[in-house]
Amino acid sequence: MPVQQLAVPGPHNSGADEGTPSVVARCLSNFRLEVDGQAVSHWRAGKARALFQYLLVNRDRFVHRDRLHEVLWPERADHHSSSLKVAVHGVRRVLNEFEDRDGFTLLHQNHGYLLRTNSAWVDIEEFQRAFDRGRDAWVAKDHDTAIAWFQRTADLYIGDFLTGETGGWINEQRQWMRGTALRALSALRSESLEREDWPAAMHWCRRTLDVDPHHEATYQTLMMMHGELDELGRVLSWYEVCRHRLRTDLGVEPNERTERLLAALMRGRSRPPLTGR
């Protein structure tokens, strides 16, 4: 049965009533803030861009100024410098240039700040929303709808969170979103295997390895699929790729299940059932 297609709001598909949003913020892959399709590039203050990114992740939530100092200047013990005010001023100058678009509002509350997203489209917000709807549909046993939302989740994950940028909070957020993408991909892979749609399953396996090149269970799935197709050369090739990546990057060997699977497939023994796990 073909998976239903959902009309999910996005920067180029917002529905007839809403129209295309004029303000778009992207954090998956390289950071990009767009107004009417044009990238905002003039972040005048050194930490203004980083402040905006952090508030964007914590959108619609109050963030105390001490926390902002810890995140943006972790090497400093003094939380009373003017650096935060300078960064806030830089963010306001950027936002004021397109305030008529009503994309974002930066509010000062007591001893901290809150970024309200208003009418802006934010990829990480849509990414989490798609996954949550997929998970809820799965729990409700509406698997067709769940798979459609998980596919939307995978489509939005075009790269790691803030690719190329560093920072403790960035690494934490990156790992969280990577894990969310992998859970969606696991569901898509499992569903394709259940339908014995090998091309689709291989596609989702490759997408999984794009996100996590050390995901050993995915190599096992690829080996089993090629075994089912009597493509023993491909079985061995994927095993070698797995072994090389694990050895080179992590300093470990393939686990016992991978070794047993290779031996069984190369001897032509009865193959274990395919799973997406």
Task: Explain this structure.
There is one protein chain. With 277 residues, this protein is of the alpha+beta class. Among the domains are: 1-21 and 123-182, no CATH class; 23-119, Orthogonal Bundle (Arc Repressor Mutant, subunit A), CATH 1.10.10.10. The protein has ten helices and seven strands. It has helices spanning 48-57, 65-72, 83-96, 123-139, 143-156, 168-194, 198-211, 216-228, 232-250, 256-267, and strands spanning 23-26, 32-35, 38-39, 63-64, 105-109, 112-116, 121-122. A four-stranded mixed sheet has the order 3-2-1-7. It has a three-stranded antiparallel sheet with strand order 4-6-5. A hairpin with a 2-residue loop joins strand 2 and strand 3 (38-39). Helix 7 packs antiparallel against helix 8 (216-228) and helix 9 runs antiparallel to helix 10 (256-267). The protein starts with 22 loop residues before the first strand and ends in a 10-residue tail after the last helix. Residues 1-9 and 12-17 have low confidence and may be disordered.
Brief sketch in words of this structure:
The chain is α+β, with helices and mostly antiparallel strands and 277 residues long. It contains 10 helices and 7 strands. Among the domains are: 1-21 and 123-182, no CATH class; 23-119, Winged helix-like DNA-binding domain superfamily/Winged helix DNA-binding domain (Arc Repressor Mutant, subunit A, Orthogonal Bundle), CATH 1.10.10.
